[in-house]
Amino acid sequence: MSWMLDKEIKRELPPEWNGVVPTEAFIHEAEKMVEEANNRGMTLRILGGLGIAIHCLDCRDFAVKLGRIGTGTAQGQEYSDIDLVSYGKQREGIKAFFAELGYAKRRTTLSSAASERQIYYHPKGWFYVDVFFDRLLVANHPVDFRGRLELDYPTITVTDFLLEKIQIWEAFSAKDLKDCLLLLKTHEVKEEGDKESIDATYTAKLLSADWGFWYTGTTNLRRIGRFISELDRLGPQAVIDPERILKEDREAIGRRIEVLLKAIDSEPKSFGWKMRSKVGAKKKWYNPVERPETVGGFGIWDAIAPKSDSEKEG
């Protein structure tokens, strides 16, 4: 790995951490980076599972009940990296910014160049930082952040968090499922979203212009709804103890999914959407960016629940 970095990095963890970087360190470092970048006139926002945890800190107890902790690459460590997003016009500034902080930059590869990302390693080897620009291209359906990063701080919006998760087709994992459950438990769905709600109007308009994203997104939402309604049976297969999830929490999640699906269904579809819908899932409708050998399987849905007839078509 060292030959891929622009400087040598040695892993040095405080002895009291016992070989595990605590979640608090990830949160502190991520928020500090966003703040310092902001002080320099640059826009950085936190995305991914860590961003969701920060956005849902007031409901940490529900994340614990879901078992959405201690799932990192190291035993007992919740996270392995920090995911950030910025604007492409700030690419060189971001590079200089991380150099000032002492981070080692991973040398550009064909993969990182094509996916519009930069990867940095903490000066003491605590973790690595994945920085995306403008769009999340390493996705089955790219998520566009242009013009949206200023809507929340220090993370992306809760709406974009949900989109980031439900765009996954090939390898929707148990962690992704739990992140969606956490988002839907802690945030209402509204016609015009604010910092603490999921924007049904924006989501519906986005999916109604792209049949592929619509198919993947609505399929995942229906699957999540089916999962939570059959939690007593399916929960253990996702390592969730059904007895820890209250009836009212299950009902709230199910209700919010229904509201969101209704908004998506009622939104007028674009001409392109209608034309692509005629082909349906007989033709690949997503970008194949993940592989079973790199994610450990095809995801949680194949493991815990059979596909419906409409889903088998793909």
Keywords for this entry:
single chain; 314 residues; alpha/beta; Beta Polymerase, domain 2; five-stranded mixed beta sheet; two-stranded antiparallel sheet; 15 helices; 45% helix
String of helices and strands: HEHHEHEHEEEEHHEEHHHHHHHH
- What's the main sheet like? 5 strands, mixed
Distance between the termini: 38 Å
- The CATH architecture category of the largest domain equals 2-Layer Sandwich
Helix content: 40-55%
Beta percentage is 5-15%
Averaged pLDDT: 88
What number of domains? Answer: 2
**pLDDT < 50 runs, ≥5 residues:** 292-301
Counting DSSP E segments of at least 2 residues, the number of strands comes to: 9
In the CATH scheme, the class of the largest domain would be Alpha Beta
Gyration radius, rounded: 20 Å
Secondary-structure class: alpha/beta
> So what's the overall shape?
globular
Total DSSP helices: 15
Strand order of the largest sheet: 1-2-5-4-3
Query: Might you state the CATH topology name of the largest domain?
Result: Beta Polymerase, domain 2
